[in-house]
Design brief:
Ribosomal Protein S5, domain 2, four-stranded mixed β-sheet, two-stranded antiparallel ribbon, 9 helices, about 60% helix
Amino acid sequence: MIKSMTGYGKSECTVNGQKLVIEIRSVNGKSADISLKSQIIPKETETAIRSLIAEKLYRGNIDLFVTADNSASPDTKEINGDVLAAYWGQLRKLSTREDLSGLFGRQDTGEMLQALLKMPDVIEVKKFEPDDEGKQQLIACISQAADRLDEYRTAEGASIERDFSTRVSNILGFVDEIEKHEQERISAIRERIVSKLADLPVDYDRNRLEQELIYYIEKLDINEEKVRLRQHCKYFIETFNEENPGKKLAFIAQEMGREINTLGSKANHAEIQKTVVRMKDELEKIKEQTLNTL
């Protein structure tokens, strides 16, 4: 099954009274490059989390974000009395200054307290330290987010598969177009060579000419390239059903490119050359998509 390497998954959970928001994002990558972008993940769980993500998501540049929603958990916050007292002491000293006495006279105690609580470091957030059960709950929540990212990848993969099928079908259609010009191409090559010889002031062996023409035209024969290209296209489509076929599809696309390039080098025909360019354009878009295919 084709899946995209790009995806996003999110889940939320409450661990030891702390509400956590888990987000996982992924983009294309050659291997599983996992970054844990959170300072609240317990060190002792990092190995298990990395193994879990690598198993579920297989490949890609993957970022895991774990954030605490402190606004939803009042118990996670504490007032630092020492800092509050220090700010209060400074305000009392300022209130004795004649040039500021009017300002302090207009403030009641409640307003002063509200202002002090907004000062830096007055409100402290307790460090998230889950117990063993909480750690398992955290890992389970991360697993849920990874599953949702995988669902996103699957949906994107269906779109990629349709695009692949359309472009491979276009390439096969171009092979059929090339066949329409083949007889015309051989006749044109023969006529061009005979015409150039007729312009030369020399006599030549016509039987030998026919032998050389047959040899030359055989070297320009593109039937094998067409057969192999059709086989590669068929194999490309069949590979959709394999698990995580992205790398294999990229290899097959390279083989398709070799046959298309050979068709172009042997063409010796303007219309066939134009068709080869269109085939290359379709193949280039296929290659771009394989870079984002799991």
